[in-house]
Design a protein that fits this description.
The complex is a heterodimer of chains A (about 625) and B (about 80). Chain A has about 625 residues and is an alpha+beta fold. Chain A has 24 helices and 17 strands. Chain A has three domains: about 15-210, Aldehyde Ferredoxin Oxidoreductase,  A, domain 1 (4-Layer Sandwich), CATH 3.60.9.10; about 240-430, Aldehyde Ferredoxin Oxidoreductase Protein, subunit A, domain 2 (Orthogonal Bundle); about 445-630, Aldehyde Ferredoxin Oxidoreductase Protein, subunit A, domain 3. The radius of gyration of chain A is 23 Å and the shape is globular. The two termini of chain A are about 25 Å apart. The longest helix of chain B has 11 residues, at about 15-25. The relative contact order of chain B is 0.33. Classes of the chains: A alpha+beta (about 625), B alpha+beta (about 80).
């Protein structure tokens, strides 16, 4: 398969900005898109080719890349996503995070598919892109502000109340490792410390406004593909349920998800009694009662982002847009079942620019240290980190963002904090590849494999599968707890997610929960008609496989990861679930090992080491990647 | 034909805005659209307006904005 020319879908240019020299330039996207189509795949290609392995995440030479997918800016359903890629602030391997909102589309209307940022500003700045006019502007007056305040201040300064803003909050400024990049005040590119990298560059925000247009190569065919995709989405049994912010797809108190995706008290258990679930997520008593409306990202036919407002009790006045499921997942870890406190925790994370996954993991680790007497009130600035103490949960969150006292102790994540504390706290420091992980490994086999082998350190959107009704390929029989077909399901899921990210499509359209409607053939038709190329499903799946092999190689070369880094945290392999329907479940090492063997095999990687092989890469037409690996002695 | 809307039901997905520009110019662009949608990022409040350049998608079986609204917000009324 060779792509000669691309005639639609793209905005056309990649913007390059060096904050040290203040130089700005642009180049054509096409030569990159011919190989990797768009979005994250192009980001990964640039990072692997241009980054020096000796560069650390905090060095000015680190690249921070924003990539909009090739379908973003069109009405292709769910095409709104922005991929943010860089060196991972936890481990110097591949860093990648992804979010929706309208920023990515606006960037394309301004004429750019990607922004590649290098260097480091001497004083705080923000990048202002208004079509082809690109400025690096002083941000000293907004440094220190929350993400909400930052958006308001920039819109006021530029006299444009709907200019799109991606910003960091105080957490990113203070180089908290788990800092996020926040778009539209509520869409969070959370993983890999992408906000921390942005903070290290003293880049407070990027504002973008575009007046251009996105054209597609074959308009009639493309609109037919869009219509067919919309029909599939609307025919899904989950279509209207998803619209209620996933309230009814998952996390109603009696939902299966509650039994299988719950991590209590820093992973000590995976079951919560019904009365606590009811208080946290019940329609009448839980977070849903604060939902006042639901909003959609650009081009989304579902709409899953609720606007919430608390008009009672001590959290009165708390309001904002947020993916409330996350608040439920976070507060379980502290055994906090007050819905208002849970919501406050989530919205505060968005304002402070903290990744909620990171925040809940590192903080609940501290709670467990307190429980075990390894941290005392003297260490915690007087906070009583007792399970269920919502006040302590919220105060600790603020301290973390500002690196205040105990917050500074925790701000580099559980690996660094447990190393400093010792006393056995390393055992319950939940991380993968050095990055704090909030995931589940004991019950769900495909989920465990996907998360453990994720190139971005223990996150669930790179291969983790649940059931065929909600995730993964539809024609494959795999279950929650069985081992059968899990490897194949994860292998499919990895490629499907890569396709979603190169098109910039939200997973809720296809591979992961949501309506579970769009599949690779749908994307092949959308891409082909938009870009004027002819891609089959098989060819698209192959490009996807190549793309995540770039990330795998980056991790090998830049972070030295291999098989030993693909195992779940010890707690999940040594300590069974204590209560509930899955009591006794554990991640069984021997069986997990067999899944790993098969997973490496299906990917063409070496079973013993987990490393890529010359033969496997040659089959993918990635000889240049093999050469890079050979150069550092990591090719099998 | 007049385009009527139920703003309370609108999630602000902007698909109407994009298919409108497609009708006029064969390209996707808020700038080229007769419809302007904005969504407050902190409150979720949606504003929606349509200007005089709307021709009710002359030549189409139905106005594209109405046909593509999955939220049931828009209606074309003769």
């Amino acid at each position: 398969m060779k792509i000669d020319r691309i005639s639609g879908g793209l905005a056309g240019k990649i913007l390059r900005v060096d904050l040290s020299s203040k130089k700005v330039s642009a180049e054509d996207t096409e030569k990159y898109a011919k190989r990797f189509i768009g979005g994250r795949a192009i980001d990964s290609f640039i990072l692997l080719n241009e980054m020096n392995p000796k560069t650390k995440w905090s060095d000015p030479e680190n690249m921070l890349i924003f990539g909009a997918g090739c379908l973003v800016g069109t009405p292709s359903p769910g095409a709104c996503r922005m991929s943010v890629d860089t060196k991972n602030a936890f481990n110097n391997g591949k860093g990648s995070a992804n979010c929706g909102g309208d920023f990515a589309a606006e960037l394309k209307y301004a004429g750019f598919d990607h922004i590649v940022i290098t260097g480091k500003a001497e004083t705080p700045v923000y990048l202002c892109i208004r079509d082809s006019e690109v400025e690096i502007r002083d941000a000293s007056s907004i440094w220190g502000k929350t993400t909400y305040e930052t958006e308001e201040a920039i819109q006021k300064e530029l006299v444009d109340n709907s200019i799109e803003v991606a910003s960091i909050g105080p957490a990113g400024e203070n180089l908290v490792r788990g800092a996020s990049v926040v778009i539209d005040c509520s869409k969070i590119a959370g993983g890999s410390g992408v906000g921390c990298v942005m903070g290290s560059k003293k880049l407070k925000a990027i504002a973008v406004r575009g007046h251009g247009a996105i054209r597609v190569a074959q308009p009639e065919r493309f609109m037919n593909a869009v219509n067919e995709a919309m029909k599939k989405i609307q025919a899904s049994p989950y279509f209207k349920l998803s619209r209620k912010a996933l309230v009814e797809v998952a996390y109603q108190p009696d939902s299966k998800v509650w039994d299988t995706q719950t991590l209590i008290r820093n992973g000590q258990d995976e079951y919560w009694p019904m009365e606590k679930r009811e208080r946290l997520t019940g329609k009448k008593t839980g977070v849903p009662k604060y939902i006042k409306g639901v909003t959609a990202c650009i081009s989304c036919p579902i709409g899953c982002m609720p606007y919430c407002e608390i008009n009672e009790g001590k959290y009165r006045g708390t309001k904002g847009i947020g993916y409330w499921i996350n608040s439920a997942l976070y507060s379980q870890k502290f055994d906090v079942d007050n819905a208002a406190a849970s919501l406050k925790f989530h919205l505060l994370a968005n304002q402070l620019g903290l990744d909620g996954d990171f925040t809940s993991v590192v903080s609940s680790w501290a709670f467990e240290c307190y429980e075990k007497g390894l941290l005392t009130k003297e260490d915690t600035d007087g906070l009583e980190l007792e399970w269920g103490n919502e006040d302590a949960m919220l105060k600790l969150e603020e301290k973390l963002a500002y690196r205040d006292g105990i917050g500074d102790f925790l701000a580099d994540g559980v690996v660094a904090a447990s190393r400093k504390l010792g006393k056995g706290s390393e055992y319950f420091a939940l991380h993968m590849k050095g990055q704090d992980t909030f995931e589940f490994f004991r019950i769900l086999k495909g989920w465990a494999l996907g998360v453990a082998t994720s190139p971005v350190g223990g996150r669930h959107l790179r291969g983790a599968v649940y059931t065929p009704e909600l995730t993964g390929p539809k024609n494959l029989d795999f279950s929650l707890t069985g081992y059968e077909n899990q490897v194949e399901a994860v292998f499919w899921q990895l490629r499907a997610k890569e396709i979603e990210d190169l098109t910039g499509t939200c997973v809720n359209m296809g591979s992961f929960f949501g309506v579970h409607a769009l599949e690779p053939p749908d994307y092949a038709e959308l891409i082909s008609s938009a870009m004027g190329i002819e891609l089959t499903e098989e060819e698209l799946m192959l490009i996807a496989r190549r793309a995540y092999n770039l990330e795998k190689a980056f991790n090998t070369i830049h972070a030295g990861f291999d098989r030993k880094d693909d195992y779940p945290p010890r707690r999940f392999m040594e300590e069974p679930i204590k209560s509930g329907p899955y009591a006794g479940y554990i991640c069984e090492k021997d069986k997990f090992d067999r899944m790993l063997d098969e997973f490496y095999e299906i990917n063409g990687w070496d079973k013993k080491t987990g490393l890529q092989t010359g033969k496997g890469l040659l089959e993918l037409d990635l000889e240049y990647v093999a050469k890079k690996l050979e150069k550092v002695g990591k090719l099998k | 034909m007049k385009i009527l809307r139920d703003i309370e039901a609108c999630y602000g997905c902007k698909i109407c805005e994009l298919v409108c520009s497609f009708h006029h110019k064969g390209a996707f662009s808020p700038e080229l659209s007769s419809i302007k949608v904005s969504r407050n990022h902190q409150t979720g409040e949606v504003t929606w307006c349509i200007d005089s350049s709307c021709d009710s998608c002359e030549g189409e079986a139905r106005p594209l904005c109405v046909a593509h609204c999955t939220y049931g917000v828009l209606k074309g009324v003769k």
